[in-house]
Design a protein that fits this description.
By secondary structure, the chain is an alpha/beta fold. 37% of the residues lie in helices and 12% in strands. It has helices at residues 45-56, 61-70, 86-98, 116-131, 144-149, and strands at residues 13-14, 17-18, 30-33, 104-108, 135-139.
Length: 153
């Protein structure tokens, strides 16, 4: 659905647009959190998000900062990502997935490595996105979150 792998058969359409084979390679309106994030270790969280935001160039620094704060990260912290805890890296990945206000958000295990407070924060973020009419696809080994958040399991 995000253009990282070609389909084994058939076609993939996202928001009325064909992916690959003459269509879009990567849909612009899909945010994704994958299991292995590819952040650059010597850059800060903000610097990583800013670099990613420059791909589509549709958001400004203030939006990046607001998104970081919304997931519980300090946007002024210049600590390199390589020194982040697993939970902080997970929050940064979630920020990356939602910072451009995509209509579809795909999250692979968004609760991994998060403490109790961070779990609550992520749940509130997902509830807010759901309330805004976003389509959210998520995987989780922790059944209580899909049961609380999802319309279909």
């Amino acid at each position: 659905m995000v253009g990282l792998l070609p389909p084994d058969s058939g076609e993939v359409w996202v928001n009325g647009k064909l992916l690959g084979s003459g269509g879009e390679d990567f849909p612009k309106d899909v945010g994704i959190l994958i299991n292995e994030t590819g952040f650059i270790g010597y850059l800060s969280g903000f610097q990583n998000l800013k670099m990613l935001a420059q791909i589509w160039n549709i958001i400004d620094d203030e939006t990046i900062q607001e998104t970081m704060r919304s997931v519980g990260l300090d946007d002024t912290d210049r600590t390199p990502v390589r020194k982040y805890s697993m939970g902080m890296k997970q929050k940064l990945g979630i920020a990356q997935a939602i910072m451009e206000n995509q209509s579809i958000v795909i999250l692979d295990e968004p609760y991994n490595a998060l403490d109790f407070e961070a779990n609550r924060e992520v749940t509130q973020i997902l509830e807010r996105l759901k309330g805004q009419g976003k389509t959210i696809l998520l995987t989780s080994h922790q059944h209580q979150y899909p049961e609380k958040l999802c319309d279909k399991i």
